[in-house]
Design a protein that fits this description.
single chain, 20% strand, alpha+beta, GIY-YIG endonuclease, 3-stranded antiparallel sheet
């Protein structure tokens, strides 16, 4: 049973923004709704709290924590315009995707 549950767990690389084309924050988590909630309560990260990057604009699932962490590290090295292209490919309106997680 435990091995089945572990296979069902997903890890996410996510991007938060304060507005379209504004400040962006990249993170990784094993429980996306709880992590985004923490950001919104200003307990997620000092950077996200300071710059009010509270809008979930992109999320990418991964099967393992290692894959997610490696992808996040690569993504953090990307140029800003590449990150913006990724967001706009997945979410052209920069809509807050947080409510979609709760459905």
């Amino acid at each position: 049973m435990l091995s089945y549950l572990l296979r069902c767990i997903m890890f996410y690389v996510y991007i938060l923004a304060n507005r379209k084309n504004g400040t962006i924050y990249t993170g990784v988590t094993g429980h996306l709704p709880a992590r985004i909630y923490a950001h919104r309560e200003h307990a997620g990260s000092k950077f996200a709290s300071r710059y009010r990057t509270l809008r979930l604009v992109c999320m990418q699932p991964f099967a393992t924590a290692l894959e997610a962490i490696e992808h996040e590290k690569r993504l953090k090295k990307w140029r800003r315009e590449w990150k913006i292209r990724l967001i706009e490919r997945e979410n052209p309106e920069w809509r807050d995707l947080y409510d979609d997680l709760l459905k």
